[in-house]
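Weekly structure sync, notes
Attendees: PL (lead), two postdocs, one rotation student
Agenda item 3: pending single-chain targets
PL asked that the sequence for the first pending target be pasted directly into the notes so everyone works from the same version. It is reproduced below exactly as submitted, 205 residues in total.
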Amino acid sequence: MVASSTPEGTAVLLRRLRAERGREQRQLEGRERRADCERCGGEFEYYPSDKNGIYCPDCVREADEFLGDNYAEAHDIEQIERECEHCGEEFSVLPCTLRDGGVRFCSRECVSDALYGGRSNRGVYTGDWYQVRRRAFDRDDHRCQNCGKRREEIGREPDVHHITPIREFDDPQEAHSLDNVVTLCRNCHRLAESGEIPPEKLRPN
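Predicted structure, written out during the meeting:
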């Protein structure tokens, strides 16, 4: 038998894998099933498995909501009402999510409007962002620069906050400079975003 660590062995292994894939494909041919999507009503094909086809591929890709029962409703968990920081609409969140300092906005649209001036955030966190982020951790000693909590107390790396918001730059990449970022715990980050901590207090020395 040829060892798989040799070039000859690798070639034999690849041939076997291709043959196995070919057998699987032949077994699946002609076995597609058709169903009507429960979301849009359009007809689509799927391969039978232990689940019936419910949603078409397009609806799965485009769906913003979880396709299934809401977790809180399914487990009878009481939710907390919160006001969106951008539009003022009330929405419900899980207590654990609120405790972790997240969920400031009611929708993706409000996130986009509030943080990015209505622009998509695609491509915003590229370029020098990750290098600047690492340098901010080193400079600020992995500590919240407002309340002083260290990474170990926070339970994770602190957030890296843009002092002058990204939405105020024509080119979002210009926001990613070391003198425009500061590390904050999630709670202080939320206070900074809402203006309760003034930007001048956050400027690095």
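Discussion points:
- The CA atoms of residues 166 and 175 lie 6 Å apart.
- The first helix runs from residue 7 to 28.
Action: rotation student to compare against the earlier draft before next sync.
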